[in-house]
Amino acid sequence: MNNTFLKACRGEKTKYTPIWIMRQAGRYLPQYQKVRGKVDFLTLCKTPELAAEVTIQPIDILKVDAAILFSDILIPVEAMGMKLEFFEKRGPVLSPAVRDENTVKKLSVPDPEDRMRFVMDTIRLLRKELKNRAPLIGFSGAPFTTATYMIEGGTSKNFLNTKRMLFQSPELYRSLMDKVTDTVTEYLKAQIKAGAQAVQLFDTWAGVFSPPDYKEYALPYVIQVIKELKKWQESEKLNVPVIYFVGETAGLLEEIKKSGADVYGIDWRINLDSAIKRIGKNAVVQGNLDPISLFLPHDKIEQRVKDILQRASSAKGHVFNLGHGILPETPPESAIALVELVHKLSKS
Amino acid sequence: MNNTFLKACRGEKTKYTPIWIMRQAGRYLPQYQKVRGKVDFLTLCKTPELAAEVTIQPIDILKVDAAILFSDILIPVEAMGMKLEFFEKRGPVLSPAVRDENTVKKLSVPDPEDRMRFVMDTIRLLRKELKNRAPLIGFSGAPFTTATYMIEGGTSKNFLNTKRMLFQSPELYRSLMDKVTDTVTEYLKAQIKAGAQAVQLFDTWAGVFSPPDYKEYALPYVIQVIKELKKWQESEKLNVPVIYFVGETAGLLEEIKKSGADVYGIDWRINLDSAIKRIGKNAVVQGNLDPISLFLPHDKIEQRVKDILQRASSAKGHVFNLGHGILPETPPESAIALVELVHKLSKS
Lengths: 348, 348
Hints:
Two copies of one chain form a homodimer. By secondary structure, the first copy, chain A, is α/β, with parallel strands linked by helices. Chain A has a single domain, classed as TIM Barrel. Helix content of chain A is 50%, strand content 13%. Chain A has helices spanning 4-9, 30-36, 41-46, 48-62, 75-80, 101-106, 112-115, 117-130, 143-152, 160-168, 170-194, 211-217, 219-235, 253-256, 272-279, 298-312, 332-347; strands at 67-68, 83-87, 91-95, 136-141, 198-203, 242-246, 263-265, 284-289, 317-322. A seven-stranded parallel β-sheet of chain A has the order 1-4-5-6-7-8-9. The first copy, chain A, has a two-stranded antiparallel ribbon with strand order 2-3. In chain A, helix 9 (143-152) crosses helix 11, helix 10 crosses helix 11 (170-194) and helix 16 crosses helix 17. In chain A, 54% of the residues are buried. The mean pLDDT of chain A is 96. The A-B interface holds A 158-160, 163-164, 167-168, 207-213, 248, 250-252, 254, 268-271, 274, 288, 290-293, 295-297, 300, 307, 323, 327, 329 and B 158-160, 163-164, 167-168, 207-213, 248, 250-252, 254, 268-271, 274, 288, 290-293, 295-297, 300, 307, 323, 327, 329.
């Protein structure tokens, strides 16, 4: 079995630096487009055979060291009781937007095997189909990032409604976050039970906070999820690493390191060695090539890979990744070249 | 004359902490809306009497310690020869987008007193009308931020076209940046000649870079503008402070401090004391309240102001500001309260 990724997550020595790519299954691959052409996005997420097929594509095409479940971070929100729709240009729309007590009350903490069974079925199918080719990463939005979509009713620029709620109605915010945090925790437990061998919490939007606000309004819920996952894993004799990715980490690292995660996902807007210095050298880090680097000529990509590998050398462990999701316009050959380069350059 | 702002910019002791607010003249003020209701946005920018009127409004209404010229950062781009239009929802559109040598060649480095005379006329009028009530800040987009609009043809999410150009066609990028840098330099000189008593360079989008890319593709042009302004000011026996604001500073401070600016504008995503530690205690800083804090109840705004004043105490000088532009939805009373609080709390 290719367990290089899992060993790196646990801070064990590996023969080379493992790599996977955020959003590696998706729009930039013609093979994905072919599957997606047959069904709409949500149907793709909810059909285990198809979701498993696109999850495996990057293992075959890119030779990455881990597969990540193809799904959407809004799946648990729909399971909590909100209406979820995707529109081609506008992105996801959730309704009704959560802005008062009454709407929060109507939300449930769903049983994942009931309301999101298709996700666990996808994971079970994937473990069979992947065999030992690569470990499988499960994921969820972190509580704050998940809540922003619920409060805004979709994506947002300034997160005005979200911040307004947590500033002006802290109790309402807390009651929503309690439900979201429990949902995320149970969802990840179910993914691990179904066979996920690592899980990533995506806190894509937590970077919109000042450090004190992050500490008060986002971090405690992440700590709660990770603590509960660790406690539960101990009782189940499991040891599944938790990766915590924040969209803009540079100002928040001193707080982020309190989350209790096994691996810290770092975005590209900070030098990896500076990040390691601030999180602590005992940390395992994941990252952090600027996704747009994949539009460079290959010799320039090579320079950047070398630079990141060198900067990562002070950490206890390193999983190579982009600093954010791969862009739809990326040439697949560049993603293939990146994986080859990381493997080749980290061996020597 | 209220010269508290200028003294703070120069690192001199002041009786209280001066404050101005990015985008202080604008959409959140009903008094602005009234003027704006009569003309379209570009006409407002280009009519000295009206531009001066809305520039002065926040001095009267908010009692801020500096006025900032009401204008748009795309004015010099239009003067360089691009077609500029504003659409209600979509924002600014510049055409044709600059993506090849031919389009770059057609751009000129305009004589500001010829092509942007209305800006200098506004400044001259403002100096008369402001008398000694408050100093006047002029401004320009920094070269990289200005160039992104030209390359993207407007605003952007990922700056894919911009990064693609600088990665794939570095010489084309450089030839564009040479023209933009000269335009920005001459534009700021003209503003100073007309009467601007401080100038701010807005590098709103430079935070999308990794530190090495920022150092290579954005910083050199900022250094060039500031160096030329300083040299010219020396020969003219002028001493107009230059403020340099970057949209997301947290990962870039070690590079930003090489810009040669007199004052560093810091966004809200980093604690001000951490920023000061990294720029150096000899720095004068400007910032950095999260704009959304103005939706808090007043006692909470007070806490945040206290916190920022305390964190700023290690710097050589501090100009209070938000960490980004004030939001259109902001209640004007909160902006008024903020100015009062900063004045009151920094006196004691």
